[in-house]
Amino acid sequence: MKVTKALMPTLRDVPAEAEIVSHQLLVKAGFIRRNAAGIYSYLPLALRVLRKIETIVREEMDRSDAQELLLPIMQPAELWSESGRWDVYGDEMFRLKDRHNRDFCLGPTHEEIITDVVRGEVKSYKQLPMNLYQIQNKYRDERRPRFGLMRGREFIMKDAYSFDRDSAGLDDSYQTMFDTYVKIFDRMGLDYRPVEADSGAIGGDDTHEFMVLAENGEALIAYCSSCSYASNVEITEINDTAKEKLSEKPLLKVATPDKKTIEEVAAHLEVPQDNTLKTLVFDADGEKIVVVIRGDRILNEIKLKRLLKTDFLEKADEESIQNLFNCDPGYISPLGINEITVYADNEVKYMTDAVCGANEEGYHYLHANTDRDFGEMTFSDLREVVEGDLCPKCNEPLIFARGIEVGQVFKLGTKYSESLSAKYLDENGKEQIMVMGCYGIGVSRTMAACVEQNYDDRGIIWPKEIAPYQIVVIPVQTNDELQYTEAEKIYKELLAKGYEVMLDDRKERVGVKFNDADLIGYPLRITVGKKIADGIIEYKERNQSESEQIQPDELYDKIATFFKK
RNA sequence: CGGGGCGUAGCGCAGUUUGGUAGCGCACAUGGUUUGGGACCAUGGGGUCGGGGGUUCGAAUCCCUCCGCCCCGACCA
Fold first, then answer.
1. Any domain includes A350
2. Is residue A421 in some structural domain?
3. Which nucleotide's C1' is closest to A442 (Cα)?
4. What range defines the domain where residue A84 resides?
């Protein structure tokens, strides 16, 4: 392709709305254009990258014996009512009606449709296991689309669904997909980590997220400095081990007027914040519960939700706390609480002579000791992990990193096969419910995540496996007969050898061409300038700072080596 | 959905307070001079000033209303 024929509209300025690097660079380098909030056109350069990502995904999925199909974007409401999600999904689902006033939606995901297809066609244990996938647009009416392709309302996703006879089969399918994802992201040249994660509203047991490591990632992950453990901090387990009690002083009531926050109380009493107790009140499915954690810690609501096995969990409002404790929330504690269930973080068990509220306006207690002073409480791992906490697997310190979620694998179980009755007959002719898994890769997001991880102040640095073009050939002076002819010769030769090449034949100054080349991020740049008269051309890799002067006949081996390694 | 902000040429912006012929830079077109890291000169094309309504002799500017978009929060891939 010649640049003069191509639609690759690079910009000098970036639209003010672009906030993060991947969004700015993809717009500036002429890959994407926005048509509406969270809705983008993929221009030719972007489409080439997407196709390459898809090709890698297809090859590895096919290799794992998954089969590609294509499911509809527009889906009938009936199926979603059957699974119960028509009412649950809420405003995030794009809904529409046909001319007969029948309800439809634009698929935010495809569990219902795939289960409908499979239940109609798969009847025997002999047909299982089966894994079906598609690469298809998804639609979610996000409350706030942002970060360009990271969180759009229309996006491309590879979604796969496995159907097994039983949970042992699902374990195998899950492992196969996990291994396949590792191969996929390895091939894309991304720096990523699979992490243990929360299964959230989709439900199910095991789940891993695949996180591309990037400074601006929205997710926080904790990984072990010595073993392979890694998890989303939302679920990172903490093993708080017993500590020796230093002393046990008697309880002492002290006045703390107008000192309601942990900071204020600790400062007033001249006690470190890590020797105070924080008491929180929650409304869990209509029942009030109390949670106690160390004063300087943050409660992890996901852990609490899992412990309580509840869907609805919300901080109790100030008024109901007043009614329960007869004092301001700043002075409450588990002291003398009998009628309310009390949960505490494991760490609380080992605290000595701590500060806690007196359940009386304006007073706190010094020297509270959990086992001595508090009534019955359930201990569990409830706090948010902090960097330096010990690995739950090997007790070495945990390190934090930011990541962008580009893939997730789930064990769904029978959630959808049951509600939509996807059943098969086993060896004994007995009806059984299929066991499902689902496996997603955000294709368009992966492109953005890749940019987020691979750029410098000049532009994008595509990994060579997914770059839109592999090589750009630049004649310094397009007007110069010799320079242009030689450049075109190299361009044609590279095309003939099967490379994806762009010839920058514009009558622009060379600075413009270099800047665009760096911005667009071709892995390799070949420059033909004045020195061609002496048989010398220039070879430069995008991720190297120095270029090399070489002879044209060295070029092809060099390029072959570069793309082979 | 709550709070804040913005909408003027493809992009970045000024003009709005105080109503009086719609501007600047980049990009684009033509000609010329340049030519190894976003050149220079000249000329030119391009606007329902987000839409509708109102006030006024006159509205980008004042008033009403609708729409779009961005940021923070809550939520989420």
1. yes
2. yes
3. B77
4. 10-206+410-451
């940019």: which residue's tokens?
Answer: A451
Same domain as A174, residue A104? yes
The gap between A60 CA and B73 C1' (Å) is 41
Beta carbon of A10 within 7 Å of strand B? yes
Same domain, A52 and A184: yes
Do A431 and A483 sit in the same domain of this protein?
no
Pick out residues 152-211 of chain A having their CB under 7 A from any atom of nucleic acid strand B.
152-153, 155, 200-202
Strand B contact nucleotides, protein CB < 7 Å: 1-2, 11-13, 25-27, 34-39, 68-77
> Which nucleotide is nearest to A405 if distance is taken from CA to C1'?
B77
What's the pLDDT score for residue A46?
96
A127 φψ region: left (φ > 0), alpha (ψ -120 to 50), beta (else): alpha
pLDDT digits (tens, 9 = 90+) for A367-416: 998 888 888 899 999 998 999 899 999 999 999 999 999 999 999 999 99
Closest nucleotide to A479, Cα to C1': B35
Report yes or no on A170 lying in a domain.
Answer: yes
Nucleotide nearest to A18 (CA to C1'): B70
Q: How far apart are CA A282 and CA A293, in angstroms?
A: 13
Same domain? A291 vs A145: no
For A455-475, what is the mean pLDDT? Answer: 97
ipTM of the complex: 0.92
**Residues A324 and A435 reside in one and the same domain:** no
> Which of A's residues 433-452 have CB atoms within 7 A of nucleic strand B?
440, 442, 445
A200 nearest nt, CA–C1': B76
For residue A88, what are the CA distances in angstroms to A80, A180, A289, A415? 9, 32, 26, 14
Q: Which residue has the least CA–C1' distance to nucleotide B73?
A: A144
pLDDT in tens, A145-186: 888 999 999 999 999 999 999 999 999 999 999 999 999 999
Q: Domain check: are A120 and A258 in the same one?
A: no
A269 or A501, which is more confident: A501
User: Residue A124: what pLDDT?
Assistant: 97
A7 touches strand B (CB under 7 A): no
CA–C1' A476–B37 (A):
11
- pLDDT at residue A202 greater than cutoff 60: no
Q: How many domains does chain A have?
A: 3
Alpha helices in A312-358 (DSSP H): 318-325
Task: Report the CATH number at residue A366.
Answer: 3.90.960.10
In a domain, A266, yes or no: yes
pLDDT value, residue A153: 93
Which is higher by pLDDT, A306 or A512?
A512
- Position A200 scores a pLDDT of 66
Q: Rounded to the nearest 5 degrees, what angle is found at the Cα of A302, between the Cα atoms of A300 and A306?
A: 125
Residue A250 CA neighbour count, 13 Å, CB half: 1
Residue A85 beta carbon within 7 A of nucleic strand B: no
Largest CA distance in chain A: 95
Residues A472-511: b if buried by 16+ CB within 10 A, e if exposed? bbbbbbbebeebbebbbebbeebeeeebebbbbbeebeee
For the residues A184-205, what does the mean pLDDT come to? Answer: 84
